[in-house]
Amino acid sequence: MSGQKSRLHQGRSCEIICPKAPTSLRGDIRIERAAIRIWGCQVGRQAEGRALSEIGRRELERIHWLTMAQSLPEEGVASYFPNERSRIERLSEVRWPQGPTCGRCQGTSITWIETRSLFQCRSCRHQFSVTSDTSLHRTRLPLGMWFQAVESLIRYRVSIFDNFHMPAHALAETLGVQYVAARRIRKVVLADIDIGGQEFLRSAVCVRAPTIP
């Protein structure tokens, strides 16, 4: 009788420990124990796979940020792009390698309105900026601030070992803006330069070919 109770108790334990063991096999203790060992090995392999996947993801992120850091201008973004016109030209090159294109009629006959810092299509007279319909659409901040934010976030990320992004309050001090503005800038920039981002700002600021060790 006691053996039967022990057998029933072990069977119930198997149901708890190994819920995926087939019900038809739970009456045989030896088979149940073997099923538990097999199931345990499967769980172990799954956990190991998840750990390796996490390590691979972190390594990919580390390479991504180091590559961007190596691609920044040696003399710094502020010196490499000393004025707003140089930044507009750089963004224009990144966005329209073959020259500015009208977003309304796709025309390529474009003029530059110096007084308004806008492009104008000769065909449909549509006026647009280099940031129209991008992550910086309708921004009122100078492009120099966006460029500086990109550089600051990249350099901060690679300067620490915990893979933390630059806090918004630190970015606010760097840019000389309020915390709320810095938080929005940080969100927009990270969405652009992180893995899978639009890469509009990243391509503009990261001008050098990275050194592959």
Q: How would you sum up this structure, described in words?
A:
The chain has eight helices and three strands, in the order ααααβββαααα. It has 213 residues and is mostly helical. The protein has a three-stranded antiparallel β-sheet with strand order 1-2-3, with no helix packed on it. The protein folds into two domains: 2-61; 72-205, no CATH class.
Overall pLDDT confidence: 82
- Give me the strand/helix succession: HHHHEEEHHHH
Q: What is the count of β-strands?
A: 3
Fraction of residues in helices? 55-70%
Helix count equals: 8
Instruction: Give the strand order, joined by hyphens, for the main sheet.
Output: 1-2-3
- Radius of gyration of CA atoms, rounded to a whole number: 29 Å
Topology:
Elements: H1 2-17, H2 29-71, H3 77-80, H4 84-95, E1 110-113, E2 118-121, E3 127-128, H5 143-159, H6 168-175, H7 179-193, H8 200-205
Antiparallel strand pairs: 1-2, 2-3
Helix pairs in contact: 1-2, 2-5, 5-7, 6-7
Pick out its properties.
213 residues, mainly alpha, 3 strands, 57% helix
Summarize the structure.
This protein is mainly α. It is 57% helix and 5% strand.
